């Protein structure tokens, strides 16, 4: 059985980011990040798009240099 994709909070914590750091880098409020981490998924949200983008950048930076393209499918869009 496939595992569920990580939540925003799980991904943030795995990358060693605090809420304050992620909110700052994504240029969204701490309160909005808490709402998004709580599971709220608005139909259209620039803040959510920025949060996911920052998480992807940090994830890519933390991957070992020998990671293959096949590894990318495991970290699909968190918004799903």
Which residues sit in consecutive blocks of at least 5 with pLDDT less than 50?
67-80
Q: Tell me, what's the shape?
A: globular
SS content category:
mainly alpha
What order do the helices and strands follow? HHHH
Tell me the number of strands.
Answer: 0
| Percent of residues in helices | 40-55%
Largest sheet at a glance? none
User: How many domains, in number, for the residues?
Assistant: 1
CATH architecture: Orthogonal Bundle
Structure description:
49% of the residues lie in helices and 0% in strands. With 80 residues, it is an all-alpha fold. It has a single domain (8-63), classed as 434 Repressor (Amino-terminal Domain). α2 crosses α3. The longest helix has 17 residues, at 46-62. It starts with 7 loop residues before the first helix and ends in an 18-residue tail after the last helix. The model is unreliable at 67-80 (pLDDT under 50).
Layout of helices and strands:
Elements: H1 8-14, H2 19-25, H3 30-37, H4 46-62
Helix pairs in contact: 2-3
Top keywords for this entry?
434 Repressor (Amino-terminal Domain); disordered C terminus; 80 residues; single chain; mainly alpha
Task: Report a brief summary of the structure.
This protein is mainly α and 80 residues long.
